[in-house]
Amino acid sequence: MSDEHQNKKREQMEKYSTNDEGKMTTNQGQKVSEDEFSLKAGERGPTLMEDFHFREKITHFDHERIPERAVHARGFAAHGVFQPYESMEEYTDAGFLKDPAKETPVFVRFSTVAGSKGSSETVRDVRGFATRFYTDEGNFDLVGNNIPVFFIQDAIKFPDLIHAVKPEPHTGMPQAASAHDTFWDFVANNQESAHMVMWAMSDRAIPRSFRMMEGFGVHTFRLVNAKGEAHFIKFHWKPALGTHSLVWDEAQKLSGKDADFHRGDLIEAIENGDYPEFELGVQIIKEEDEFKFDFDLLDPTKIWPEEEVPVKIIGKMTLNRNVDNVFAENEQVAFHPGNVVKGIDFTNDPLLQGRLFSYTDTQLNRFGSANWHELPINKPVCPFHNNQRDGFMRQTINKGQVSYHNNSLADNKPEPAAEEEGGYVHYQEKIDGHKIRARSDSFKDHFSQATLFWNSMSDVEQDHITNAFSFELGKCQSSSVQQQVVDMLANISLELAQNVAGNIGAREPQSGGSNVTKSSPALSMMNTKFKPNTRKVAVIIDDDFNGEDLMSVVNDLKAEGIQPEFISDKLGVKKAKDAGEAQVDHTFLTADSVLFDAVYVVGGENITKEFFTTANNFINEAYSHYKPIGATHKGVKWLENNRIIGKAGVVTSDDMKEFASQFKDAVAAHRHWDREMVYVEL
């Protein structure tokens, strides 16, 4: 082929690969008239399968990354059981919710969203909280997050969101972080994200552990009873240990010190018999009350404030067994929000409607076959019979000549089950609307609940949110993106917007704010449960410590479920000056203050300068993260040198019973925020 001919061909290809008009098209070249809304039967109706643009867009996205999950790649899981406290027969025909004597096996996977499989676990991010119930009537998957709302209102925008939050394509950076231009450009220009980013910039996005975070079904579902009566429903998981978080500096350091911190915490708790527990709660709204609220029940960017719609606690989940094989269970589990049982049904939430399609396509991509349901971790505990056959990874050996319905050769087996035989019947919701790409006006308020969230935060939590926005936007290179986000924040809180602007050098908005004055105390983590159970305490010791007193304190702490671990300069045994000895668990090289919830300074009689300096750094870092600090005997002198005696959460005493009691209370408090702005002399 001549050079001239090659050049003409190249010019022709470039011509067809360039859209000079800048208009969006499908991959087939059809110009797209709308890219914000999926095609629905009426503004609040269900998404239609004939929406070829949505299906092409979401299908392409689902197949962009192999073989790890496109999102939620970094996660870990455990087995357990669920048992209801009472029968929910009034609301649902789901068998596992009707019998308080019935234990249902569960499998739960916790995860980050944005990072790849090899990323750190303590990054600022949403956490997935996916639960599979292996019920006698089939698998029910509650595929949720630790935040009750989401960034977008319609699933057609999910590829856009994830494209924006993933590493920027021209550099592949940053990994597992939202502190970059494309994410915040998306937020500023898709302001339905306003409520979600308030949660994401709060301490909820850096949980202390999987065991200490809430879980939410996010979407509005339906519960349907045996009479066919339906109620709108939202699912909640409430952790028995309360909802607690890391501080940002601590979270960053943990990423380097122990990228597997959260999975290690979960594994260790179960191995120790400290089984994580979560109570299942539901918010219930009658169908006739659908339009009685100042938010749309189908909008996934909205919560139902607990003060308006109380959470009814209906059961408890206990995680009591670690996985046997990470790949076979944690990686091969295939959750799907469309896996429901009778008595649980969907609503027309446009984000949920899209997920019902997308998850099937995603699993097809991950496994290369429709037979993922035959893998042990995905297989239901009840028998299953249908006419599906063959395909990659097929394990079932189907017998007989018939694989179709209707048939006479096998007496029409398997046959559909009637409703009274347990057959699933979709709720008969009346649908009457024009096919339309639009969003209901009731979805257009993007800021009221963002302000509600801000109003509900304590002063400390508001400071942390301000700092989080300042950090994230401070990492952005585009001053235009920074300014756009600041201007958006002015719709939520003028004070927030001005403080962030001042921190990043943007123009401070002079007008804005919100007329919303409501708050929801349930949203503040300051109102959570505070327990010392399973908290880890670093006990710093050296030779010639007071053995009798130390063992008295350690035993008292263990009796409260607190876990002391001994730290020194070297591994081995440290001898007490009176009687006894202590086996060192970690050295200063293998441990760090960020790996513990509190510090107890014991010391010894002949501490070297090097030991003291290293231990002092350990103590000061823990203090700067607002953690409890305790000291007895020689350790008290160390805290006097640091001038922190008498500060919030600092406990000292030579009366061992009194010390143990006060230190236990300090540990239960989790953090001591009264230290804000206290100077620590190093």
UniProtKB/TrEMBL annotation:
Region (Disordered): 1-36
Family (UniProt): Belongs to the catalase family. HPII subfamily.
Entries under SUPFAM superfamilies matching the protein: Class I glutamine amidotransferase-like, Heme-dependent catalase-like
Keyword match Signal: no
SMART domains linked: Catalase (SM01060)
Domain of life: Bacteria
All copies of domain Catalase core, residue ranges: 25-413
Required cofactor(s): heme
One MF annotation (Gene Ontology) recorded for this entry: catalase activity
EC number(s) recorded for this UniProt protein: 1.11.1.6
EC main group: oxidoreductase
Catalytic activity: 2 H2O2 = O2 + 2 H2O
Protein name according to UniProt: Catalase
Pfam families assigned to the protein according to its UniProt record, in alphabetical order: Catalase, Catalase-rel, Catalase_C
Biased composition, class Basic and acidic residues, residue ranges: 1-23
Purpose: Decomposes hydrogen peroxide into water and oxygen; serves to protect cells from the toxic effects of hydrogen peroxide.
Gene3D superfamilies for the chain: 1.20.1370.20, 3.40.50.880, Catalase core domain
Keyword annotations from UniProtKB, A to Z: Heme, Hydrogen peroxide, Iron, Metal-binding, Oxidoreductase, Peroxidase
